[in-house]
Amino acid sequence: MTKRRSCCTLTIPVCVSSKTEIPAAIREDLARSGGFDGLAARVPPEETIRERSRIHHALSDPLRLTILHLLKGQPLCVCVIKSVVRIADSRLSYHLNILKESGLIAAEQQGNWNIYRITDEGRRYASD
Q1: Mean pLDDT over the full length of the chain
Q2: Over the stretch 17-64, which tens digit does the pLDDT of each residue have?
Q3: Rounded to whole angstroms, how far apart are CA atoms 39 and 26?
Q4: Percent helix, strand and coil across the chain, each to the nearest 5
Q5: What domains lie within the chain, and their CATH numbers?
Q6: Which of 48, 56, 73, 99 has its CA 20 to 30 A from that of 118?
Q7: Cβ atoms within 10 Å, residue 122
Q8: Helix (H, G, I), strand (E, B), or coil: what is residue 72?
Q9: DSSP E strand boundaries for 16-110
Q10: Left, alpha or beta for 115 (phi > 0: left; psi -120 to 50: alpha)?
């Protein structure tokens, strides 16, 4: 829990438990960059943070990265992907769905088959 107290032109959080102030060098840098408002202004909008988080989540699993690299070479049907990664249908479906929701892959229905391909966004993250 923090309290705020004013110092110079900044409102400085003070740690309630230790009663310590922000170190002088940090306080000076913070003042030069516009204070807490200037610091907060550097953070991307919430929607951008959510989108990046979704992509990082999709990329955080080795199996999903494997799938992304498989699709880098060519579009593939589920049965081919399954043969390479050797997991149950339900697990594969789960991982493909996460990659689709993050915009890294897309699926196209061709007759009875779902054909998966990497998107331009996915290609950006599947570089060697």
Answers
A1: 86
A2: 455 688 999 999 999 999 999 999 999 999 999 988 999 999 999 999
A3: 12
A4: 55, 20, 25
A5: 2-41 (no CATH), 51-125 (1.10.10.10)
A6: 48
A7: 24
A8: helix
A9: 76-77, 105-110
A10: beta
